[in-house]
Amino acid sequence: MRILLLLLLLVPVAAFSQHFRKVVPKRGDVISTLLVRHGLNPRYYEREFVALNKPLLGPRNSLRAGKSYRLPPRKTAAQLAARKPAAAKAVAARAEKVKAVKGRSGSTAVLFGKYGRPSASDQALGGAVFYLMSGHGGPDPGAVGQYGNAKLAEDEYAYDVTIRLARVLMEHGATVHMIVQDPDDGIRDEGVLKMDADELTYPNLTIPLGHVARLRQYTNAINRLHGRYGRKTYQRMITIHVDSRSAGLNTDVFFYHHERSAVGLRLAKNIHQVFRRRYARYQPNRPYVGTVTPRTSLYVVRNSYAPTVFIELGNIRNSKDQRRFVLAQNRQALANWICEGVINDYQRKTLEGQ
Length: 354
Prior knowledge:
Layout: H1 2-15, E1 22-23, H2 31-37, H3 42-53, E2 69-70, H4 77-83, H5 86-101, E3 129-134, E4 144-147, E5 150-153, H6 154-171, E6 175-178, E7 180-181, E8 200-201, E9 205-206, H7 211-226, E10 235-243, E11 254-257, H8 262-282, E12 292-294, H9 299-303, E13 308-315, H10 319-325, H11 328-352
Parallel strand pairs: 3-6, 3-10, 10-13, 11-12
Antiparallel strand pairs: 1-2, 4-5, 7-8, 8-9, 11-13
Helix pairs in contact: 2-3, 6-11, 8-11
């Protein structure tokens, strides 16, 4: 009896000795962004996270401010494959996509989908070189907003606006390098853009899960390309994101630049001025409150050789902003307005230098 009692006492200790890391979400976090920040792919860990923390979650599995949540323990590759038999097929399919774009990804022609590669209608940007980077991608969807029964992912909407911007810049004679590239999603006109994780970093690199590793990979790609062009070449980097804030906060497009980059500041101001004029024309009863501010703490802003503007398009969690994002013509308008500001900046370069 004594031995049996001892065994009964030991079993619960062994069964429940597993340690869970506890983390507190940041403002605007959803489960996917919280997991990515801590090195866990939402595709494999989100369901387990919900099961572990269900009593602490809000409506639609939202995170509550100030609450401490348990992270699922990290699994080995073999464990992940065992839990998800389709994972091996997904990895194989991704490898095939990498092969399909290998050798072609330096050209934006394969990226526009049904719209195809544009021909230049003028040379308003002739001689200018742009590095365009949409936020997040690959295993990291970025911020995710709930839109009815669907989810809107930051990386998909940022990418759609970015590839539209690439095309319109090329129509004015610019040379464009897309730093984040999706081998099978060109410009899309659907409202809800399907989430995937097959984006690559130029020229054909698999995007890492780690946040700093991903940003370093992006920036290294930009800086290697930057060295191909002469010092007097007009080179600019534009990175496009969608913000995540309180669902009740409707935000306007706003801009960041390096605090010591007069050229980056000038570009940001020129684009910002276009948005002010366009808002005044199309929404006269609603003042535009987008801002231009320095933000040197942002990795790509701090480390890119090309002067950089970091653009936030709005709040992916806000219903009013969501209605803007799901309309293809609005995404195209954003691209057009950014391009207009870029042209204004390029035309001023002869007056104020590079």
